[in-house]
Each structure stands twice: as C-alpha cells, then as structure tokens.
Amino acid sequence: MPRETSSLADILADERVWKLKDASASLGPSRPVWSTGRSALDARLPGGGWPTASLVEVLLETHGLGEIQLFLPALVESQNRAGEAPWLVWISPPHEPYAPALAQQGIELGRLLVVRPASATEALWAAEQALSSGVCAAVLLWLQGTDDRWLRRLKLAAEAGGALGVLFRPDRHRFESSPASLRLLLTQGERETHLDIIKVQGGRPGPVEFPAS
C-alpha cells in the first residue's frame, strides 16, 4: 500500500537529502528527460519527454480524464534507476490511489508517499519541501487554485531538487499567467479526452492525439 502521512518527516529524515544539498554546487546543468510513453507527445516536447527539475501544470476540465496514466510511464522510469528508488509524492489526490494497479504498472509502493494536508497552504508547503528535498523523483499536487507567488516558489523548488513537479488545477485557470515551463489542458470530448499543449518552452504547442502511442 502507498504510505500515508500528514508530514514529510520520512523524506526529510533521509540522509540523501543533506548529502545532495551539500554536493549541489557540483551538479551539471543537464537534467534527465523521461519519456511520456507516447511518441506523438514526446515529439512535441523539448528533449523528447517530461522535463525534470521543472514545474508542469495540467489544467483539468474534470478529474478522471487519464491524467495519472499520462505520467505513469515516467513515474515507473524514474524508479528504475541504480540504487535505492527515489520517492514519489502525491499531495491531496482527489481519490485514493489504487495500490494494486500501481504496483502492476511497476510503481514501488514502499517509495510512494501520499500526503493529505489540512489546508491548501499546508499542501503548498509540503510540495515545496518535497520538490526541493533532492530525494523525490516526482511530486504530484492537486489544488483548486493558488497565486503566482506560490507557483514561482514551486518552480524554484523543483529546479533546486531536480524533481518533476506536476500541478493539477481546474481548467478555469488556463487564461491566467503561470511560470510553469509546460502547461497542458485536458478536456472531455464526445468520445475521448482532448489534450492540448498551451505553453511549452522549446517545443511545439497545439493539440496532441490522446491517448497516443
């Protein structure tokens, strides 16, 4: 089962957090890119996949449009590295993660942390701490809304910790400015989900076939 907690004590107690921060000055500027598992989408993104050390914003018409499946290949890839698997952190998910399905896909449940803060402010704080910790491969955060100042803090935290930050928000925020390096819009069509890249640095915006192979 995914581990649930109301704090980030497990992550902050990980000695690799401090080792990585001490060595951060020696890290090069290049960051890995994780394939989306969909060739049509990879071709539209800089580097050919989800950019790590960055903030990705996913704007949703409603939950359950395949937003988790969109990132599952990258989450699995992020844990299949040499050494101990990094943490995956989900903060305020709208539904309980279904552990058997995640395990079947290849997610190491012992390194999946589900955080359920009491407020939006606590959720943002938890996301900032996890993103900057240096031991998280990806941090997924569900929010109804937040201000530009917090978005910038999340982006900086992702850059500092080298993590992939994914922020899910309602699609009503699509016309607001955002510091996220990549913004996606998921809407429900008559028969299928529509995926649009509405902002991408170094890639090509526009609609993408979804699901795409």
Question: Care to describe what's here?
Answer:
This protein has 213 residues and is an alpha/beta fold. The protein has one domain: P-loop containing nucleotide triphosphate hydrolases (Rossmann fold), CATH 3.40.50. It is built from 7 helices and 11 strands. It has helices at 9-12, 15-22, 39-42, 67-79, 99-105, 120-132, 148-161; strands at 3-5, 33-34, 50-51, 54-60, 87-91, 112-115, 136-142, 164-170, 182-188, 193-200, 206-208. The strands form 2 sheets. It has a 9-stranded mixed beta sheet, with helices on both faces. Strands 2-3 form a two-stranded antiparallel sheet. The longest helix has 14 residues, at 148-161. 38% of the residues are buried. Residues 16-29 have low confidence and may be disordered.
Outline the secondary-structure elements:
Blueprint: E1 3-5, H1 9-12, H2 15-22, E2 33-34, H3 39-42, E3 50-51, E4 54-60, H4 67-79, E5 87-91, H5 99-105, E6 112-115, H6 120-132, E7 136-142, H7 148-161, E8 164-170, E9 182-188, E10 193-200, E11 206-208
Parallel strand pairs: 1-6, 4-8, 4-9, 5-6, 5-7, 7-8
Antiparallel strand pairs: 2-3, 9-10, 10-11
Helix pairs in contact: 6-7
